Amino acid sequence: MSTQGKVSLAIVVGGAFLGGILFATAGANLFGVGDAVGTSGQAAALDGSTQVEQSAPSTPSGFETAFSEVAASVNPAVVQIRAAKVVDRQRRNPFEGTPFERFFGQRGPSEPEVRQGLGSGVVVRSDGHIVTNNHVIQDAEQLSVQTLGGEQYEAEVVGTDQYKDLAVLKVDASDMTAISFGSSEQISVGQWVMAFGSPLTPQLNNSVTAGIISALGRLQASPQRGRGSNQGGGVQNFIQTDAAINPGNSGGPLVNLQGQLVGINTAIVSRSGGNQGIGFAVPSNTVERIATQIIEEGDVQRAYLGIRYRKAPETLLENESLPKGSAIVSQVEEGDPASEAGLEAGDIITGINGTPLENYLQLGNQIASMRPGEEASLQINRDGETRTLSVTLGARGESMTASGEGDQGGESPSSAEALQKELGLQLQDVTPDIARRLGLDEARGVVITGVDQSSRMIRDSGLQPRQVIFKMAGEQVSDMSAFMEAYQGVKPGDAFRIAVRNPDGFVFVTSLRRPTDAE
Mind telling me the catalytic residues? Predict the structure, then answer.
């Protein structure tokens, strides 16, 4: 494994902040990413020794010394990781592009090719346990580790957690310098940090860069593992930094000026493939918890609710004055914890454990930080009424998902055409043919066949063609007649809920407001 590999660009993680998140490793094009976490780690299992005592520098030279001391203390714990993968490469047709291509058009036989990936890691136990990113080593057939002093070791994978994009390796060594852990709960925006790793090429091993913590709690939905769910791969909770991170830095440590680990460098936002001052790291508390579980127990126990959910639309938030991070329950898995606690599809989760949601992804992140068997208190809004449900969290496996009467006050439209003009929705009964095309079990409900995109209310509502309305203003909707009857009970200017079933089978809830005559 001494052959120096090619440096490949970092891969784009879809739907990320700005132009896209890239894995900060040169091997990312070859090898993956991911949620969750469970039981808390045991600090005693990770015997770091890189912490340095720093006094507040009073001179520029004292400030320089602070960085130098951290670099000298931490670098011996930083390693370079090379990951080899054998892939089949199709031989090129020598007649391609010539007049003979039509006669000799078949490609040649495939031949094996060894590709090299480059990443970084950090020793977390002096007996040779190393933490890196899962995407650095995923699918690798051979792994080697090189230390600051040039020693090389073959490495074995102890365990991985693709949801948080972390992996633990083991090399046959003892008395290695291990990183000291700091608490990612005690860091703050503007604090100085340093990043370590092997950016771009093996020759740049143990490079050190410095910057500040730019932001905390950057929540990002992980790649989907199931159909149509925002909870499919869980939620990432990143530290953002402007310390230079480039392809090859993935898996390297982000440390404070006491030489303590505060994060594992994982991804960058870049339009060029290189550093643009926006990097992300997995918080050290998560790293410690997962690494300890993998080393001591062999796997990671993660809590789960057993639901799929999505962000509540703006119209629902505005019309009902709900917390801006409220989440709509799209599906509840039968027999899972949420189902046992009485949670239903269409419920609006507004808070967890007494804290209102400011970002709907906080729900998955909070559940991920809890242990299986713990109780989570969910604040929900069901049909306009608030209530609290207590859920005993389950132990999540690889395939599971976090987983009045009143005056009508005016004349109501008497036809679908008038309703379309007033509300901005084209509707019709679900016929047997439509039910068959949409994969519905029965021909009941009202299907949306068109929406008025010029209406801000409709644009913000999240309503789309092919959704089937089954509940409106608290009334079950079996056909257009039932829909019109329920709509006539809504006063002009009042808001009302609409519950729909998406083509993927999941439930979505939003809110509209009946226009007044002036509108």
Answer: 135, 165, 250
